[in-house]
């Protein structure tokens, strides 16, 4: 049995079944919350995969169950495979909280080789499947922060182009483009653009990733300079910034530029 000591086990035998907090999840939680719980306990989604053979993998989860007779908590690995839900016993656990029991069960599953990372597809240049998952998670378009900002601006009555080139002949794409006001907006991901607050340097192939992120930052600065020379105002926001604050800044600048352009035309 995996746990701190046998004291919890003996206590459960004398007093009754293990407390609900040791194994039962809170009712009514969303699927996203359950998935996040499993990811935390496993140490990341990238290590939650069962190898089904022939290049196939299934995302697994740990289920905790109490045996009525022994009053012990058992951990089972579960996954989906072509409509079936195979289950494999992992170990017994006796920590006082569900989070610690899940973490202990995942650690045992990894130690026994029941789960791990997916093999990288042929031709992938990521250093590991966990890095590849991070890369895939950092989307270049239609990210959650982008959508939040777009929704707030649309609600303020502003219209814009999405993922467009401010200068058609220049191969630089902005997340939002206000053509009439000549305002380009970028929502930068913390990983790819080197956020000073949230960037966590890669531990694998670190020199490669440092160079890549540094190059992205140089390109960002160059883009800002070129667009400014072409008469565009550039606003950049980190993905972690408050979208309400960002929307207000964008709206103020766009309206200011639009009113200025209108006044100029009327005066001429």
Automatic annotation (TrEMBL):
Protein name per Swiss-Prot or TrEMBL: T/G mismatch-specific endonuclease
Family annotation (Pfam families): Vsr
Family designation: Belongs to the Vsr family.
One GO-annotated biological process of the protein: mismatch repair
Molecular-function annotations in GO: endonuclease activity; hydrolase activity
Keyword line: DNA damage, DNA repair, Endonuclease, Hydrolase, Nuclease
Keyword DNA damage applies: yes
Region of interest (Disordered), residue spans: 1-28
Keyword Nuclease: yes
InterPro entries (UniProt xref): DNA_mismatch_endonuc_vsr, Restrct_endonuc-II-like
């Amino acid at each position: 049995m995996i746990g701190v000591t046998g004291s919890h086990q003996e206590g459960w035998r004398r007093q009754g079944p293990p407390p609900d907090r040791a194994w039962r999840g809170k009712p009514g939680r969303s699927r996203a919350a359950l998935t996040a719980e499993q990811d935390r306990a496993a140490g990341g989604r990238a290590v939650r995969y069962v190898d089904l053979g022939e290049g196939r993998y299934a995302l697994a989860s740990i289920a905790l169950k109490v045996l009525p007779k022994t009053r012990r908590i058992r951990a089972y690995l579960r996954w989906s495979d072509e409509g079936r839900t195979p289950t494999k016993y992992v170990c017994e656990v006796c920590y006082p909280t569900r989070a610690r029991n899940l973490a202990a069960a995942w650690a045992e599953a990894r130690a026994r080789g029941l789960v791990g990372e997916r093999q990288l597809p042929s031709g992938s240049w990521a250093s590991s499947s966990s890095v590849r998952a991070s890369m895939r998670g950092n989307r270049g378009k239609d990210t959650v922060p982008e959508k939040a900002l777009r929704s707030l601006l649309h609600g303020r009555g502003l219209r814009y182009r999405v993922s467009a080139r401010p200068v058609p002949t220049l191969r630089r794409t902005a997340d939002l483009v206000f053509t009439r006001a000549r305002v380009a907006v970028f929502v930068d991901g913390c990983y790819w653009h080197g956020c000073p607050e949230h960037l966590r340097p890669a531990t694998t192939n670190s020199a490669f990733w440092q160079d890549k992120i540094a190059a992205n930052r140089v390109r960002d600065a160059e883009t800002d300079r070129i667009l400014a020379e072409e008469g565009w105002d550039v606003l950049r926001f980190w993905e972690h910034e408050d979208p309400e604050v960002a929307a207000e800044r964008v709206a103020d600048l766009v309206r200011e530029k639009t009113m200025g352009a209108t006044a100029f035309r009327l005066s001429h």
